[in-house]
Amino acid sequence: MSQRIPKFPFNIPWFMFDLANYQLITSRTIPGDIIDRKQVILTEAPVPGLNYQPVIPGGGGNRHISFTLPLIKRDNIVGNVLLLKQIDALRNQAAGFMNFNTAPGSFRFNTNPKVLYYWGTGSLPLVWYVAKADATHKQGWVNAFGQPQYSEIEIELILDEEDPIYQSEILFRNLSALAGQVSGIASLAASGQAAY
């Protein structure tokens, strides 16, 4: 996985916004490969005597994205702990910003946070459930105070298609698909060659 940051005259930094705790999570390092998957549910129904099985469409699954974010911080006494605690908030029930109520069960009925995210997905900013936010602290990357300096965060998000923002993604997807069709035909015509 490359740790290099591409050089552009301008680029939007990697970020997620925690909607429940009102925190912007960002880092100088960027995610590795972003895996974007959505299951198409099809059922093959066996019929006695047929030489094939009719396919019955069953709808679609949820859209998931997952990636690994390297967090490296070597120039202070706390290592990358401050960023890790932002990620840790995504793994726990939402407390809200600066809520110090620590009574047992005080967050019992709070939901886990959702995030606003879009970086590297080819979509508009959308609301996602946080399904996974696991940390691997790298051996040998601990400072003199015992704090981790290099951790890899495995994140998995599930799209909230019931959020009103998702309607804008449907429109964006349809317009982009139309523009993609025009672009593909124009590039083929301009090349004057067969595909390779």
Describe this structure in words.
The mean pLDDT is 86. Strand 1 (15-18) and strand 2 (23-26) form a beta hairpin. This protein has two domains: 15-162, Elongation Factor Tu (Ef-tu), domain 3, CATH 2.40.30.200; 164-196. The protein is globular and about 70 Å long. It is 18% helix and 32% strand. The chain has two helices and seven strands. The protein has helices at 81-89, 166-191, and strands at 15-18, 23-26, 35-44, 55-72, 114-117, 126-137, 150-159. The protein is α+β, with helices and mostly antiparallel strands. Strands 2-1-5-6-7-4-3 form a seven-stranded antiparallel sheet, with helices on one face.
Concise overview:
With 196 residues, the protein is of the alpha+beta class. The protein is built from two helices and seven strands, in the order ββββαβββα.
